[in-house]
Amino acid sequence: MLSKEKLRSKFREDWEKHYKLDFLINQGFVRKVCSKCGKGFWTLQTEREVCPDQPCQFYEFLGNPPTKKRFDYIQSWKVIEDFFKKHGHTSIRRYPIVCRWRPDLFFTIASIIDFQRLGEEGVSFQFPANPLIVPQFCLRFNDIPNVGITGRHYSCFCMIGQHSIYDGKKGYWKDRCIELDFRLLSSSFGIKPEEIIFLEDLWVGPGAFGPSLEYFVKGLELGNAVFTEFKSDNSNLHEMKEKVIDMGAGLERFAWITQGTPTSYDVVFEPILRYMKKQTGIKYDSEFFLKYSKLAGTLNLDEVNNIKRMRKQIADKLGVTVELLEKKIKPLEAMYAISDHTMGLTFAIADGLLPSNVGGGYNLRVILRRALGFIDDFRWDIDLFDLCNLHARHLRLICPELSEHLDEIQRILDIEKKRFHETKLRTKRIVETIIQKGETIDEERLINLYDSKGITPELIQDYVSDLEVPDDFYTKVTERHMGEKRAMIREEIDVTNIPPTKLLVYEDLKKMEFQAKVLKMINDKYVVLDKTYFYPEGGGQKSDVGFIDDAPVSDVQKVGDVVLHRVMDKLEEGKTVNCRINSYRRDILKKHHTGTHIVNVAAREVLGNHVWQHGAEKTSEKARLDITHYDNLTEEEVEKIEERANEIVKKNLPVKIEVLPRGEAEKKYGFRIYQGGVVPEDVLRIVSIGNIDHEACGGLHLEKTGEAEFITILKTKRIQDGIVRIEFSVGPVALKYLKEKEALLRETAKLLKVKEEKVPEAVKDLFEKWKSKRKELRKLRRK
Ligand SMILES: [Zn+2]
Ligand SMILES: [Zn+2]
Hints:
By secondary structure, the protein is of the alpha+beta class. It is built from 22 helices and 26 strands.
């Protein structure tokens, strides 16, 4: 694979092949080379010498928009959607902002991610329609310090995706793509053709790349049309059979350019800002701010790491002090950032993710605490939930589903707010201790304080006024957690040169005895057979046990395509052996496994949409299901979950297994199928319980929920931030547990000298007595 720079020069040399389009030529566009940066660009302005991008050109539309009509955020989408629908595109609903279908991403970061799947063969594309248009809301956390400040950086934004697959017959390619984008700008938005400039560039994605044309109007990049047509294989340009149009444009920028406001936030968050200004009584000096924005636009903010230095330069040019400048703009910047962060939280929580200190939840808590920090700093009377509510209302024409999750968003934000204030109280003590010890708070320490205790630099600044906080602090802390999403692969034993085992367990689930041939004995411990009906551990389900001849099998693992049976005694290679599977244990495992699906769906129904399976383990004694939830479960909630689970058992719903291509499975059942994480296969085994639950799962299940008999929740525990563990057992194991409880009850009744049915009352009585005794005891101790 060539470096991006090498590819760039290769494409530049061969510009006629990659960038010269009949459409552009017919319209009278000419190719120019930027006198400042050397990039190629296409324009109708025959005299033009510089490219349309910063730093070669600055914004020219602030206070002076190039369109006659003004569109707000929602209207802009409607104009774009209408245009593409009129030209044969299917408009599809957004995909979740929480990216459950990719093992390498927590969040959807671009519209093309919706359709990319990582399989065993690398990246493939799955488009539900061709061509299509999608308003894809995205989350990115790499620019947090710039959010609210530059006027155009967001952590949450809407990428308009214009996509088509082209194989020579279906779909369309470069010419049609650029023609559509040009007509959208000129006809639908009314931008003069001379103002539209296309800049040559390229895009390198995972496993594929291609040339791109970015389109600019008055110094603002509105969209980027990427023509993904080459596969990355060594140094050759290897053309793909199916090429992909990947045009992504910022909806924020389309609305912005028609209004020419000082920042794009003024347009995008209009109702939210209006509310905040009313709540805080802050007046907006729009003339001053426009001057400020124009100046800020002449500085390349992407490169500015030092915001303080930038402010000094602007203050000098405006002829004011830095203090005055900051006094005027800081509250506004805070409002912009809060608007952005609450929009991100609204989407992410509605899509089922919780703020926490693990994985993607970590990023959510960062923006949540940053927003709360601003509100506290300025002592504003603003509640984050009210803003989420406004976002949901504002966006209802594009994303009507957001308002369905408001209750849940409120509950979660309330708890998080409480936690934040608890942290604030703790901060004082912790910082005082550090100062007493004479220790310094450097960058590493800052990051650790946030990482381990949730203490933000803003909180520390209340006690240490001269604290040095790097501008990219939040980028640094989130970067630490980006590598957490990785598939767990266990491969300790070398199985190269061993033929694959025929794994027949799914073909006949009732087969408990069979004959097979010993192919190989590894390390005197593991038997490889030519075929097996033993279930190897997987999907959180323990393996079958049993016998191979007289040798007990204690564990079965699958490594690659080879199944390893762990045995106590050595077996002779080449020999035909008799195998027996312990059917009682298999049965219990099936019950516990199916029970896990049932308890998971029951928990989600009782607790809310944010409940996902975080992990699970099923042994023959009990099952353990870890779910995402923000708090301990109350007794009432546990009871409700148990009740609902048993209702599902009683209904005797069928447990159906389907083998479907991945795209079809997603289309039919949505991304909830990825409860146990992403599965790399292109064909998925979908397990459905009636029509209430569908999961991609490779485990062994009952045929009907009724076979589980009943489910008892043994205990629940909050095992870490955002994760609750539910232990339960099913059928005969549950019965054993209840019998023990019953015996205990009988014993208790005897001790209390009451009838068994009176026990609860007597126990309650006893408990009250004990509580008051404890109180007395405490009082005595205090004296
Ligand atoms: Zn240039
Ligand atoms: Zn399962």
